[in-house]
Every structure is written in C-alpha cells, then in structure tokens.
Write a structure and sequence with these properties.
By secondary structure, the protein is mainly α. Among the domains are: 85 residues, no CATH class; 38 residues. It is built from 5 helices and 2 strands, in the order αααββαα. α1 runs antiparallel to α2, α1 crosses α3 and α2 packs across α3. It starts with 8 loop residues before the first helix and ends with a helix. About 5% of the residues have low confidence.
C-alpha cells in the first residue's frame, strides 16, 4: 500500500487492486493515470513560487477521482449512472437505487406519522373524558336567538332569560390549571 500522505489515493488503490502481471489493460490505464496526475501536480506547482518543492504541492480536491473516471471513460466508454458529488470525494451513484431508498424512507415516515396521530387521538380522547370539556357547535351565519322570551325590566330594558334547571355554572379557570 501507499503512504497516508498520497496525493492521489484513488489512483493508488486502482493500481493496488487491478494491476497484476499479465493484465496489460490495467497496467496501461494505471500508467496513464499516473502520468495525468503528474501533469496536474506540475500545473498546480506552476501557480506557486518557483522554489516550492513538488512534494509540498497540493492537487485540487477530487483531482485523483476525476483523473481515474476520465481515464476509464475515455478508454472503456461512459457507464450508465450519474456522477454525484457529495462531501469531499465524488461518488458514482445509481439514481434508481437512490429513488428506491427515498421511497422506503418516505413509506416508513408516513407509517410513523400515522402511528403518532393515532396515539395523539387516544390521548386527546382520554383528556376529554377526564376534563368533561363542553362540546361547542360550529357557528352559523344566523344570529343566536334566545329560546325563552325576555321580560322587560322596569325601565323598558329587556331582562336576560333566567337560568333553567340543569345549567350549572362552569369554572373555566379550573380547566386550565
């Protein structure tokens, strides 16, 4: 293997994995990649002061991966799939696989949301039973009319209807303690 400080680890791994005695194609591809990597280092060094040693020149990010994929694409032809860039190195991704994974995650999250909604409904029903919250009807566009006729007060002002039995006063503040 190569040292930790390798400037083009992708090319080094290609050489370690594929270059074997008698595999002329892999040897040729690796030689081309090494030559291109040297050209990239020389180009990077040309933008630095002349006394900068080539060992201290840092190639552009993902340069090794780009050299590897371009060399393979030019020699073997482009393969189906898409090159996806992420954090750091680029990776070759299969969009069908990504789509299937996202569908699986979406299905799992939908099931989890449904389960949580069911749990919340049970909790709300339990709270409603314990607190005996009054049921409010939806408002209508018609004004509310009293069910009992009002009796005028001595000054001619109508009196509000008196309480009927069964109407208990509700302490609403105690509902929110």
């Amino acid at each position: 293997m190569h040292g930790e400080g390798s400037k083009f680890p992708e090319i080094d791994v290609f050489g370690d994995v594929y270059v074997r005695p008698g595999n002329e194609l892999a040897e040729s591809l690796h030689t081309t990649m090494v030559e291109r990597s040297q050209l990239v280092l020389q180009e990077s060094a040309s933008q630095l002061p002349p006394e900068t040693p080539i060992e201290s020149v840092a190639p552009p990010q993902d340069a090794g991966f780009q050299i590897l994929t371009e060399t393979l694409d030019q020699t073997l032809g482009r393969r189906p799939g898409t090159y996806c860039r992420g954090m750091g190195n680029a990776r070759r991704g299969n969009l069908d696989l990504v789509h299937r994974r996202s569908q699986t995650v979406r299905t799992a999250l939908t099931a989890q949301v449904a389960e949580l909604q069911g749990q919340m409904s049970v909790i709300l029903q339990s709270l409603a039973r314990r607190l005996s919250i009054p049921q409010f009807r939806a408002s209508t566009s018609e004004p509310v009319t009293p069910s009992m006729p009002t009796r005028p007060l001595p000054g001619g002002t109508p009196r509000p209807p008196s309480r009927t039995t069964g109407d208990d006063p509700v302490d609403f503040a105690s509902l929110f303690d």
